[in-house]
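Exercise 7. Given the encoded structure of a 463-residue chain, write a plausible sequence.
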């Protein structure tokens, strides 16, 4: 199976007294480093490469010669053992640029595209002064305004800047150039849960329970901060290097949603929308409980509940039809799904005491929540270290234009100018374009024009 890591092959025969060789290619020589102890770490290897190098420059990172993102990320984690590195494997040395007090977009070197959404592109990048890998989500301003998506981008940045949780992608920096907005986030080399589920077909209940538990804790954290997520789906659940989940994409999130508070914005992905969302009668925290049930259903069956290729038929089924469950599911699992996917949000599991009700359900009885929370539970799969965990179709696309600065003058974190323009536009019922132009002229930093009206094609919808 494509997602299983078997690092034992790399260490086969490497016992105390034996060794393997790692070849580090620098700008002037090849260093042959002997690894005599299976407990030696990536930090030791980097230190040894610097010790043996004749160059006056400092090696800040080692990368695989093939550009394999899982190996590259592993090598950045200094406490990780060298087990995935093969005997006589060639690694490339990267030298540190001078460190700046404040980072700018120019400090990140694009490597490859790893994701694409309706109005964004996600690129794997390397920070040139440290060799660290990050993911950058880039959005075209003119497209955001034309498609009325600017508030989603601002919401995502605002919400992510407040979050800190092991199962939620961390935002490190936010930049903008005159034509684009950029979010620099954790790089998750395991890729999307959707990609692996597509390859595997479906999971066993035991496997699905692991992901269900970690997703639940992430949603519980959001609700504890009065934030509803509203966009839970396998595409938005990423896997880190060890196989633990991280939720991403907070553009549809809503702040200030306390218990029993409702909002009426119609949003979300069709397959995972709750009946109350489709009815437009107002929705609250229970939409996330419904989507938690929907993603569990998909993990163990391979399809979202009520799925139809025809969207109108699917909406009708979500609102009107009874849930049909496969006979191979356990009685407890069937009961949990029926409870989470109840069409009445007031009767849905979690309506009275939130996620605590779900934790106490018989299907979750053997879950050690403290162990899950501390990431000590063993993932059913770990990202393949010798094969990319991203859709190879993304790699065919050129990322140079995403970070192109032709005719532009990137500057540090001026998202506030865009946010102020959006707020002003909403209150004055005027065009965000006009607001942005008026604010540009008032900005003491005098940034270059904030908008570019170059044509941008929307990404293809999910099929």
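Solution.
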């Amino acid at each position: 199976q494509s997602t299983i890591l078997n690092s034992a092959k790399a260490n086969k025969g490497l016992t105390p007294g034996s060794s393997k060789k790692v070849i580090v290619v620098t700008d002037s020589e090849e260093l042959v480093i002997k690894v005599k102890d299976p407990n030696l770490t990536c930090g030791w290897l980097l230190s040894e490469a610097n010790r043996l190098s004749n160059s006056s420059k400092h090696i800040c990172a080692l990368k695989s010669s093939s550009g394999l993102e899982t190996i590259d990320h592993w090598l950045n984690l200094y406490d990780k053992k060298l087990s995935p590195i093969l005997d006589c494997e060639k690694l490339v040395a990267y030298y540190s640029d001078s460190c700046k007090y404040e980072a700018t977009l120019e400090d990140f070197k694009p490597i490859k595209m790893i994701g694409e959404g309706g109005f964004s592109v996600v690129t794997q990048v390397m920070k040139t002064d440290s060799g660290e890998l990050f993911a950058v989500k880039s959005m075209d301003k003119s497209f955001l305004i034309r498609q009325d998506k600017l508030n989603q981008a601002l919401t995502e940045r605002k919400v992510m800047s407040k979050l800190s949780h092991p199962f939620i992608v961390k935002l490190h920096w936010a930049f903008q150039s005159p034509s684009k907005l950029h979010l620099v986030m954790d790089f998750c080399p395991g890729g999307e849960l959707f990609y692996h589920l597509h390859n595997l077909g479906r999971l066993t209940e035991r496997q699905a329970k692991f992901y269900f538990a970690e997703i639940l804790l992430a949603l519980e954290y959001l609700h504890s901060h009065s934030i509803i997520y509203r966009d839970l789906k396998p595409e938005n659940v990423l896997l880190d290097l060890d196989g633990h989940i991280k939720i991403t994409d907070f553009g549809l999130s809503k702040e200030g949603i306390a218990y029993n508070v409702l909002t009426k914005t119609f949003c979300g992905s069709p397959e995972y929308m709750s009946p109350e969302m489709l009815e437009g009668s107002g929705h609250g925290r229970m939409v996330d409980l419904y989507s938690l049930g929907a993603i569990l259903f998909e993990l163990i069956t391979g399809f979202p509940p009520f799925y139809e290729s025809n969207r109108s038929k699917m909406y009708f089924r979500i609102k009107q039809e009874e849930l049909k469950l496969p006979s191979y599911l356990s009685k407890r699992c069937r009961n949990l799904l029926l409870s989470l996917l109840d069409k009445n949000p007031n009767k849905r599991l979690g309506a009275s005491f939130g996620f605590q009700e779900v934790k106490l359900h018989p299907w979750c009885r053997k879950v050690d929540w403290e162990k899950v929370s501390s990431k000590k539970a063993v993932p059913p799969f770990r990202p393949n270290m010798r094969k990319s965990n991203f859709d190879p179709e993304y790699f065919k696309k050129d990322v140079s234009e995403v970070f192109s600065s032709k005719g532009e003058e990137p500057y540090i974190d001026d998202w506030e100018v865009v946010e102020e323009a959006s707020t002003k536009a909403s209150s004055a019922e005027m065009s965000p374009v006009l607001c942005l132009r008026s604010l540009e002229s008032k900005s003491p930093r005098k940034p270059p024009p904030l908008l570019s009206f170059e044509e941008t094609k929307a990404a293809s919808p999910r099929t």
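Remark. The two ends are 24 Å apart (CA to CA). Students should compare their own answers with the one above.
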